[in-house]
Write a structure and sequence with these properties.
Keywords: Hydrolase, Protease, Serine protease, Signal. Belongs to the peptidase S41A family. This is Carboxy terminal-processing peptidase. This protein is α+β, with helices and mostly antiparallel strands. Helix content is 42%, strand content 16%. α6 packs antiparallel against α8, α16 packs antiparallel against α19 and α17 runs antiparallel to α18.
Length: 682
């Protein structure tokens, strides 16, 4: 029997096979959560920033979010199922308000039925299907979630699953796994997924339902049920010993949301946001496939004793996303000193002279609250450390200063406020608007200035929250050039509220710059943009579902020190000219273009082995050519293999930021001389 006939028999047998008796018991609403539902309505309508009315419009959004949370890849429900379930589209608000959430369990139980039937049948036929796959056939799998539609028939869904299964098998095959290992690995993945479903309880379903409602309001409002951890992020930085990463479930995968500054993952490896973890291993032990496994089980495997090594097999979010790679990380506890501000000096040669530019890197806005409460006068804080480092850099006769907030995800608002005060006299730094419309300005009351010279703030897409407050304030005051990429756009404030069962994290206020512009959604736009390897389409507030919009309120009174916009016509062309010839930036721009091409090309994944091999070789060749072009321009020895490529030691961005600052200083000095000349002529 050839492959096509075998597949037809398998799919026909699956499609028309009678549904086996369910191995899973249908779940019903836990009545102790009836009160929670009513509390959530009261709190969301009463204290959420938008003061929403939980109505049919909210219900319709929540319905879509709930379906997406259950079946994000459109793998189990048919279009006819969705059409039938759409009768409940306007019922979610009533269910929450009345404390009767049966509708959520009716939908979930149908999902459970579809999933059990699908995965059980796959496990029955999986060995024969994998053995029958022909990797010479030129066919593709749609991997673009925006283009994926609900299947109209069982036959369409069967074919979609066949292609998904074939792709998973091909990935393992290309990684050198034997056919037996491929079968056992994928069987284990589906068993894990069934096991995860088996471990899902009524409270988990309630939490998913409640979070569908909160997601219809904004992406940062969430309900947390007691002891439930399946549907919200687990911050591994809080673990005793871990890798310092925030993880969440994404379909069947464990996905990296962000890295903790100063943590092992951020400092030891090339793990990146949006990477997927597909296997976890320990030293001298075999890798364990974790696709389909519960998030808390994966976290337990990654945690371990200090100074031991964990091995992660990941599918990267950038580059060849269809080939996995392994990285090793030594477990450490993330300590305050690992996140402390650090300094360095960048030396720039110009006209036969060497100029020093100080760089202070700040991974987060921190303060040792325990030491403060204990009365320790020598407590650590980001403001104190930055001030000390500035004083040390001034002793070394720096010409300018760079505050590096790249990858700084925020932290203490008080620290952001006081740190901004190091560069300005007393004045407002941020405005906070609450749900009642009341605006409260926060500012620095200390008139002392630690550094008054030329400076820049270096930011990227991962600079968020408190980082955006500092960058925005210094930009509005004209105290610093903002260099880099558009920031994250997290400009909202959340508070935790206790409910009868669990907690509600609710958005209650928004941040506004002293200019009146919100940092929400839009973030802080740089004065001069640097090329970025971070994809704004997948990372940032605007990439989240249903973010609160950007808006503006009245500005507050503040002085402007330098009108930076007047300098940009001179600074930008010089910056662009340097980037066009700088070997490092040329390589970075080439890499960005390749990533864009790969993102488009991988929206449709080839299931032909020779094509995948060629794609991998082409990517390696492009990477090698790009690196050798850079090395040739720098007069370095050329490489023969991509395996020999090492990270660029020099911080290209800090170097270029230093060049921009020196341009600014020269332009400012010239403007002052011209002004003095005009004054003298009068």
């Amino acid at each position: 029997m050839n492959y096509k006939r075998l597949l037809l028999c398998l799919l026909t047998g699956y499609t028309f096979a009678s549904t086996p008796a369910s191995a899973y018991q249908e779940l019903q609403p836990p009545h102790e959560y009836d009160k929670v539902s009513k509390e959530l309505v009261e709190m969301l309508e009463g204290i959420h920033y938008n003061r929403p009315h939980i109505d049919d419009a909210i219900s319709a959004k929540a319905f879509d979010y709930y379906i997406d949370a259950l079946d994000p890849s459109k793998s189990f429900f048919l279009k006819s199922d969705i059409d039938t379930l759409s009768q409940y589209r306007n019922s979610f608000d009533d269910a929450l308000r009345k404390g009767d959430t049966q509708v959520a369990y009716t939908i979930y139980n149908l999902y459970l039925k579809r999933l059990e039937k699908r995965l059980s049948s796959l496990q029955d036929h999986l060995p024969e299907m994998i053995k029958g796959f022909d990797y010479d056939i030129d066919e593709t799998l749609n991997a673009d979630p925006e283009a994926q539609q609900w299947a109209n028939t069982e036959a369409e869904l069967d074919d979609y699953w066949r292609k998904r299964l074939k792709n998973r098998a091909l990935v393992l095959k290309l990684n050198g796994e034997s056919e037996e290992k491929i079968i056992s690995t994928i069987e284990r993945r589906y068993k894990n997924q069934l096991k995860r479903v088996d471990q899902t309880n009524a409270v988990d379903v309630y939490q998913t339902f409640a979070n569908a409602i909160t997601a219809a309001l904004d992406p940062h409002t969430s309900y947390f049920a007691p002891r439930a951890s399946e549907t919200f992020n687990i911050n591994m930085s809080l673990s005793l010993e871990g890798i310092g990463a925030v993880l969440q479930m994404d379909d069947d995968y464990t996905k990296v949301v962000r890295l903790v500054p100063g943590g092992p993952a951020a400092t030891q490896s090339d793990l990146s946001p949006n990477d997927r973890i597909i296997a976890v291993g320990q030293e001298d032990k075999p890798m364990i496939d974790v696709v389909g496994m519960r998030l808390d089980d994966v976290v337990d495997m990654i945690r371990g004793e200090r100074d031991t090594t964990v091995i992660l097999e990941i599918t990267p979010s950038k580059g060849d996303t269809q080939t996995s790679k392994r990285i090793s990380i030594v477990r450490k506890k993330v300590k305050l000193e690992d996140q402390s501000a650090k300094k360095e000096i960048v030396e720039v040669e110009r006209d036969g002279e060497t100029y020093k530019v100080g760089v202070i890197s700040l991974p987060t806005f921190y303060s040792d609250f325990a030491a403060i409460q204990a009365g320790d006068k020598d407590y650590k804080s980001s403001t104190r450390d930055t001030k000390r480092l500035i004083e040390e850099l001034r002793e070394e006769k720096i010409s300018a200063l760079i505050l590096d907030l790249r990858n700084n995800g925020g932290g203490s608002l008080q620290e952001a406020n006081s740190l901004t005060g190091l560069f300005i006299p007393s004045g407002p730094t941020v405005q906070i608007r609450d749900q009642s419309g009341r605006v409260t300005p926060l500012g620095d009351s200390d008139t002392a200035i630690t550094y008054s010279g030329p400076m820049a703030v270096l930011v990227n897409r991962m600079s968020a929250s408190a980082s955006e407050i500092v960058a925005g304030a210094l930009q509005d005051y004209g105290r610093a050039l903002i260099l880099g990429d558009q920031t994250f756009g997290k400009g909202t404030v959340q508070v935790l509220q206790e409910v009868d069962q669990g907690q509600l994290k609710v958005t209650q206020a928004k941040f506004y710059r002293v200019s009146g512009e919100s940092t929400q959604h839009k973030g802080v736009m740089p004065d001069i943009a640097f090329p970025s390897l971070i994809d704004k389409e997948t990372i940032g507030e605007s990439a989240l579902d249903n973010p609160l919009p950007w808006d503006k309120i009245h500005e507050t009174r503040y002085p402007v020190y330098w009108k930076m916009s007047a300098y940009l016509p001179i600074l930008e062309p010089r910056h662009e000219a340097r980037m066009a010839t700088d070997p490092n930036f040329v390589a970075i721009n080439a890499q960005i273009e390749e990533f864009k091409e790969q993102v488009e090309s991988y929206k449709s994944i080839s299931l032909k082995e020779s094509t995948r091999i060629q794609q991998k070789e082409d990517n390696k060749q492009k990477e090698l050519e790009r690196e050798n072009t850079r090395r040739k321009a720098l007069g370095l020895e050329l490489l023969t293999s991509v395996d020999d490529i090492e990270p660029i030691e020099e911080d290209t961005y800090a170097k270029e930021a230093s060049e921009v600052l020196l341009d600014f200083i020269a332009t400012n000095q010239m403007a002052q001389k011209q002004a003095e000349k005009k004054t003298a002529q009068k």
